[in-house]
Design brief:
It comes from Sparus aurata. It contains 11 helices and 15 strands. It is an alpha/beta fold and 484 residues long. It has 2 domains: 245 residues, von Willebrand factor, type A domain (Rossmann fold, 3-Layer(aba) Sandwich); 142 residues, no CATH class. The strands form 3 sheets. It has a 7-stranded mixed beta barrel. Strands 3-2-1-4-7-8 form a 6-stranded mixed sheet, with helices on both faces. The chain has a two-stranded antiparallel sheet with strand order 5-6. Strand 5 and strand 6 form a beta hairpin. Helix 1 packs parallel to helix 6 and helix 8 runs antiparallel to helix 9. The longest helix is centred in the last third of the chain and has 35 residues.
Length: 484
C-alpha cells in the first residue's frame, strides 16, 4: 500500500499568475487531481493512501494524514490558500516525520537487527513549488536546511530524516506570465536548479523544471510510473575492475572512476501474488557488530552501503535453503553487468564492519545477470553463505540430517562468525529444510536489555505523540468550522 504525500507550496508567491490566466496554486491543485486520475487507471491504486501537507507550521500544515479520508484530502486540497512564507525545509521535515510516525510502532525498521527489504512502507513525496527564494522568519536562505530537532521520538536512530523506502520528487513551476514565442524544446524535462534538487537526489528521487502545461502533464505521467515497491541502496565497487572478457570485442580501457562504480538506485520488492505483500527470508546486515554490553545503538544511514567485488564467483543455490531475489532498477551498473554477458557468474556483495573480525565483512549475497540478460538481480543469502551452504548441503546429502561431531564443530564455528540477529532467519530456514533442532532455543539475538527497553519505550511515546497530533488537528478543524 504506497503512501503518496503531496507537499504544496502555499507561500504568497504562489498567487502569481501565468499566461494561462491561472495562479501557480491553481496549477498545483490541478496537477494533484490529474495525477490521481492517471494513477487511478492502475488496479493497484485501490490500496493508495494520499496525504497532504502545506507550508504552515507543524502540526497545522498537516491537512490530511494517517486518519483522514479521501474526501477530507480533496476538501483540504481545494481549500488551500497561498498566504505564508517559502519555509520548505520545515515543511519537508514535517512530511518525513508524518511518514515515520508509525514505523517505531510497527517495528518496520528493525533497528540493530538487520534491514529487511520485505519490511517496507513505500512512500513518494511530491513537492510542488514555484522555486522562489527560501524564506522564513529569519530571512532569505540560499540553501535548503531541514531542522535538526524534531518532536518524533527515536529520530536519532537514523542519520537522515528519510528512510530507504521514501523518495522525494519536486515539480518546480517555471511557467511564465507572458506566453513565449519560442518553440518548446522536445525531449525529457530537465532537473531544476533550485535548492530542493539535491534533497530529491539524495533520497533517490529527482526534480523537474516545468515551463509549460505540456511539460507538467509529461512529468505527471512520469511520476505515476515512479510508484514502485522498493528500497534504495548505495552500491559501490570495491577492489579492481574486472578483466576484459576474452570473447568480447576489444574494450576501450577507461581509467579513473566510472559511472557504474557507484550507483544509488532502487531494488524492486515485489509483492507475493497470493498474499499481496512481500515475503522474504534474509536481512541485509548492519554496518556494525552488535555489542550486548552497549546501552545504545549506533545511528544508521537511511540507505545501506553495499559494496560489490568484481571477482567472478559461482552463484550458489541449494535445494530447500531459501534465498531472496530482487531486481535492480536500471542504472549504469546494470548496463555494465549485462553488456558483459556472463549470466553464469556473479559478483559478491558485502557491508563493511558487519563481521566481528573483518573490516570488509563476509558476503551476504551476490549480483547476477538474469539468464535472459534482460535484468540484474540482487540475491540475498544467509550471512557468509559460501561457508554455510556447503555445510547444509553435506547435512542433507551426506549425513541425511544426522550430523556428526565434526560437522557440528564446523557449524558452531560458522555461528561464531554470523551476526547474532541472523538467528531467527536461520532457525526458520532450518525448519523449512527439515532440521529444526540444530540451534539452541536460548541463543541471544545480540541487543542489550537497555536497547530493547528503549525501543519499547519509543513505541509508547510515538503512540502518545499520534494522539497529541490528532487532538491539535481536530481542535484546529473545529475552530475553523466555528469561524465559518
Amino acid at each position: 500500500m504506497p503512501v503518496l504525500l503531496f507537499l504544496i507550496d502555499t507561500s504568497a508567491s504562489m498567487n502569481q499568475r501565468t499566461h494561462l490566466g491561472t495562479t501557480y496554486l491553481d496549477i498545483a491543485k490541478g496537477a494533484v487531481e490529474t495525477f490521481m486520475k492517471l494513477r487511478g487507471r492502475d488496479p493497484a491504486s485501490r490500496g493508495d493512501r494520499y496525504m497532504l501537507v502545506n507550508f504552515e507550521d507543524v502540526p497545522f500544515g498537516i491537512k490530511a494524514g494517517w486518519k483522514e479520508s479521501h474526501a477530507t484530502f480533496m476538501t483540504e486540497l481545494r481549500n488551500l490558500q497561498a498566504t505564508g512564507l517559502t519555509s520548505i525545509g520545515q515543511s519537508l521535515r514535517t512530511a518525513f516525520d508524518l511518514l515515520n510516525l508509525n514505523r517505531l510502532v510497527t517495528g518496520i525498521d528493525n533497528y540493530g537487527q538487520g534491514r529487511n527489504p520485505f519490511f517496507l512502507e513505500p512512500a513518494i513525496i511530491i513537492a510542488i513549488s514555484d522555486g522562489n527564494k527560501l524564506t522564513s522568519g529569519g530571512g532569505v536562505q540560499d540553501e535548503l536546511h531541514l531542522p535538526l530537532t524534531t518532536p518524533l521520538p527515536g529520530s536519532e536512530l537514523t542519520k537522515e530524516p528519510f528512510r530507504w523506502d521514501q523518495r522525494l520528487f519536486a515539480l518546480v513551476l517555471r511557467i511564465p506570465g507572458n506566453a513565449s514565442v519560442e518553440p518548446e524544446p522536445l525531449g525529457g524535462v530537465p532537473p531544476d536548479d533550485s535548492p530542493i534538487t539535491p534533497m530529491c537526489e539524495v533520497t533517490g528521487g529527482r526534480s523537474y523544471s516545468v515551463f509549460s502545461q505540456r511539460m507538467l502533464n509529461q512529468c505527471l505521467e512520469s511520476l505515476v510510473q515512479k510508484i514502485q515497491s522498493g528500497v534504495v541502496i548505495n552500491f559501490e565497487k570495491t577492489g579492481p575492475d574486472p578483466p576484459p572478457l576474452e570473447d568480447a570485442p576489444a574494450e576501450v580501457l577507461k581509467s579513473g572512476v566510472q559511472p557504474w562504480h557507484c550507483c544509488h538506485k532502487l531494488i524492486y520488492v515485489r509483492p507475493n501474488p497470493k498474499t499481496g505483500v512481500p515475503i522474504g527470508h534474509w536481512p541485509i546486515p548492519e554496518a556494525f557488530w552488535p555489542d550486548q554490553n552497549s546501552p545504545t545503538l549506533p545511528p544508521r544511514s537511511a540507505h545501506p552501503h553495499v559494496r560489490f567485488s568484481c571477482l567472478d564467483a559461482e552463484p550458489m543455490v541449494i535445494d530447500k535453503v531459501p534465498f531472496d531475489k530482487y531486481e535492480l532498477e536500471p542504472s549504469p551498473l546494470t548496463q555494465y553487468i549485462l553488456e558483459r554477458k556472463s549470466p553464469h557468474t556473479c559478483w559478491q556483495v558485502f557491508v563493511c564492519n558487519s563481521a566481528k573480525y573483518s573490516d570488509m565483512g563476509q558476503p551476504f549475497g551476490y549480483l547476477k545477470a538474469s539468464t535472459a540478460l534482460n535484468c540484474v538481480n540482487l540475491f540475498v543469502m544467509p550471512y557468509n553463505y559460501p561457508v554455510l551452504l556447503p555445510l547444509l548441503d553435506d547435512l542433507i546429502k551426506v549425513h541425511k540430517f544426522k550430523p556428526t561431531i565434526k560437522w557440528r564443530q564446523s557449524f558452531e564455528n560458522y555461528l561464531k562468525t554470523m551476526p547474532p540477529y541472523y538467528i531467527g532467519s536461520l532457525r526458520k530456514a532450518l525448519r523449512i529444510m527439515g532440521a529444526p533442532n540444530l540451534l539452541a532455543d536460548n541463543m541471544e539475538y545480540g541487543l542489550s536489555y537497555s536497547v530493547v527497553s528503549y525501543l519499547k519505550k519509543l513505541s509508547q511515546q510515538v503512540r502518545s505523540l499520534k494522539r497529541y497530533y490528532l487532538f491539535i488537528l481536530n481542535s484546529s478543524t473545529a475552530s475553523q468550522e466555528a469561524c465559518v
